[in-house]
Amino acid sequence: MRGTPPLVGVSAPPHHGPDGPPLGHHPGIRATNLSADSKDLLQQVRDAKAAVVKDNSVPGYTVRPSQVPAEAVTSSGSGLDPDISPRYAEIQVHRVAARNGLSVGQVERLVEDHTEGRAIGFIGEPRVNVLELNVALKDAVAKC
Fold it and tell me: CA angle, corner 14, sides to 83 and 55, nearest 5?
């Protein structure tokens, strides 16, 4: 995922490697003072969404704009979020598999293994630990 060169992995905004963003992150997304109805902000979000679609589409699998979650085109104030949603990880699986010589099934299993549920069953949302997932991806690639 993103942030573990030379491995092309899962990214979370805003780190970007030479082979595209890692799983969970997208370059160029950062905190802003623009209002929600700002034309500049709306254009930045449209551009970011198009980039997520392009970066994560590979031969045989095309990401649809409707699949791109809001977190892929926005960021928190700190921009240092260590986790991404399972939905965002899912649209990166095919790219990560293709660029690392792994099967889609292998990457899906790794994502599942590094997905944490809600705290005490009901607080928060399920999330994927990008750092741990990228370390696991690196280990899986080394075994190939």
Answer: 95
Neighbours of 13 (CB within 10 A): 27
Q: pLDDT, tens digit, for every residue of 18-62?
A: 455 555 544 545 566 778 888 998 898 999 999 999 999 999 999
Tokens of 33: 């003072």
Q: Is the peptide bond before 14 cis (omega within 30 degrees of 0)?
A: yes
Beta strands (DSSP E) in the chain are 83-84, 115-116, 127-129
> What is the spatial distance between Cα 105 and Cα 85, in angstroms, rounded to a whole number?
18
User: In angstroms, rounded to a whole number, what is the distance separating the alpha carbons of residues 52 and 106?
Assistant: 22
**Amino acid in position 26:** H
Is residue 82 within 8 Å of 12, Cβ to Cβ? yes
The pTM for the full model equals 0.77
| DSSP 8-state secondary structure symbol assigned to residue 58 | B
41 exposure class (CB count in 10 Å sphere: 0-12, 13-18, 19+): middle
Give the H or E element holding residue 29.
Answer: none
What pLDDT was estimated at residue 34? 79
